[in-house]
Amino acid sequence: MSGPLVSGLGREIVLTLNGPDRRGIVHAVTGAMAGLGLNILDSQQFGDPTTGEFHLRMHLQGECDLDADRLEVERARLADELGADVDIHDPLEPHRLLVMVSRQGHVLNDLLFRVRTGQLNVVVPAVVSNHEDFRAEVEWHGIPFHHVPVTPGTKPQAEARLREIIAAERVETVALARYMQVLSEDLCADFPGRVINIHHSLLPSFKGARPYSQAHDRGVKVIGATAHYVTSDLDEGPIIEQDFRRVDHRMSPDQLAATGAELEAMAFARALRWHVERRVVLRGRRTIVFD
User: Fold this and answer.
1) E-state strands within 93-194
2) Which residues 6+ apart lie within 8 Å of 131 measured at CB?
3) How many CB atoms lie within 10 A of CB 92?
4) Quick one: which of 36, 13, 144 has its CA closest to 89?
């Protein structure tokens, strides 16, 4: 389960449940929530026949502010009775998101605009970069910018500094908005399901520099973007969202790259929103995503 409920809950909660499938799960949950005076606004569920697990996301609303103590008692009782992980979240509490970027700014620009206009329910307490390119832009948004250079010889110190920032800013999730440094195995292991990356979907065929030029030379017909959780397997973590677009011989490498940048920004924004809204269930190497 997640940590204890924060005090002062409002009138809405999101309940998530993940555990072994059995009869009566939905009945038990809805009965418990009705007993607390909560009404279901939205409910999605999935019984996975390949694993024998059951997954549930339920958005509920009450007529008055909720009693956090009573809610915690019911949460613990359901978890024990059903042998499942049952978590309660406040959907109105902004998620604390640290953003990391290198020298490509299209995903960062899109993300900061969405945050500024309220399209994503997140707070960005800091942006970390191994270059200075976007300091002025980030600070224009009123967000602290941390320049943390990385070389092969200083990578341990750079990651130690990153850990300090994450702890000091009470960061819940790290967004790699085209951050072009590989995180260490130790760092990935310490933040499972809390680091999200975005890259083009031309991998693994077109690695390295100028992937869209390589794709153009090979006459690709589809380009796309993949957002995924970061693991020690480079660019092979559990996929949250993908997007694609058909292309043809009339498009130059620059036009392919521009289309790819647009797809990356959109796929990343959707993946972050679903993650923040507790719509993503991480199970080993795969995900279940409630729309």
Assistant:
1) 95-101, 122-123, 127-129, 145-147, 173-176
2) 102, 103, 147
3) 12
4) 13
**Backbone angles phi and psi of 192, in degrees to 5:** -65, 135
Task: Report how far residue 275's alpha carbon sits from residue 196's, in angstroms, rounded to the nearest whole number.
Answer: 9
**What mean pLDDT do residues 65-84 have?**
95
132 exposure class (CB count in 10 Å sphere: 0-12, 13-18, 19+): exposed
Amino acid, single-letter form, for residue 29 = V
In sequence order, which residues have a C-beta less than 8 Å from that of residue 80 and are 6 or more positions away? none
Taking CA atoms, 224 is separated from 5, 112, 201, 255, in Å, by: 39, 22, 5, 13
Q: Which one is catalytic: 235, 248, 254, 291?
A: 235
Task: Please state, in angstroms and as integers, the Cα–Cα distance from residue 212 to each residue in 176, 202, 225, following that order.
Answer: 20, 8, 12
Task: Write out pLDDT tens, residues 263-284.
Answer: 999 999 999 999 999 999 999 9
Annotation says 80 is catalytic = no
